[in-house]
Design brief:
2 copies of one chain form a homodimer. Chain A has one domain: lambda repressor-like DNA-binding domains (434 Repressor (Amino-terminal Domain), Orthogonal Bundle). The first copy, chain A, contains 5 helices and no strands. Chain A is globular. At the A-B interface, helix 4 of A face helix 4 of B. Chain A binds a DNA duplex through helix 3.
Chain lengths: ~60, ~60
DNA sequence: TGCTGAAGTAAAGTTTGCTTTACATTATGC
DNA sequence: GCATAATGTAAAGCAAACTTTACTTCAGCA
């Protein structure tokens, strides 16, 4: 599932480390989600939406598999 | 994470079995998510939003932990 | 009565999300 | 040159999502 976290994070001038801290996860988790290694859990997706100030549907591409 | 899947499913007159088939998961998964045993993955949450014709934020309560 | 559909619980097992640790690369600045 | 910050990869291990199977309960109906 593709996402625009990297772009949104950079717009907010947040490092991966800073975003990880805001989300309460490790830096590896941020890297892995940004690079598409895996999808975040639903609670984490909601936190991302709150931290990045964007609706979930705007952060993730709902394209089908 | 609380959700309104059961109510939305019943409004659409879908059985758990029918919803599971539409989502491409097992009936157990539908039961477990409806009853709050665990949260769906993000891809599954998107499928739920599509099948139930409601935005993710309307299906799940984003209350903080 | 007994059958069938819908909803529910439980347990074992696989897959995926997440953590922790360690190491590599690139850029900035002393 | 050396240190530090930011990004990235990889691997081992734990936790949560999901599957499969099996069993239970309740309602409706012939």
């Amino acid at each position: 599932m593709k996402n625009h976290i990297k772009a949104l994070r950079q717009q907010r001038e947040l490092t991966q480390q800073a975003l990880a801290k805001l989300l309460g996860v490790s830096r590896q988790t941020v890297i892995s989600i940004e690079s598409g290694r895996f999808d975040p859990s639903l609670p984490l997706a909601f936190k991302l939406a709150r931290v990045l100030d964007a609706p979930i549907e705007a952060i993730f591409d709902a394209e089908e598999g």
